[in-house]
Write a structure and sequence with these properties.
With 84 residues, this protein is mainly alpha-helical. It has helices at 2-6, 17-38, 53-77. Helix 2 packs antiparallel against helix 3 (53-77). It is elongated. 12% of the residues are buried. The model has no long low-confidence stretch (mean pLDDT 83).
Length: 84
Amino acid sequence: MACQQTKVCYDFSMISLSSILSALFLLLGSILMGHGYLTKGDPMYGKSLGWNLNLIWGSVVFGVGVLFGLGYWFTNQIPQKEKP
């Protein structure tokens, strides 16, 4: 094994990319939805034909975060093979 020769071993199974992306998308979506909810009825939405785009896109981004989280959860439900 190469790490025995260099005496430096890395374990890349610490945290997955999907869990990091899930957390980031959930956080960003929550911030956008919160801002959209707090500014509901503001006259600035007249420029976007009255659509609260912060609330809409916040829910879309939050939904993507949920999908990443579900993907991470489902991949952890599959039994992993033992390494020899």
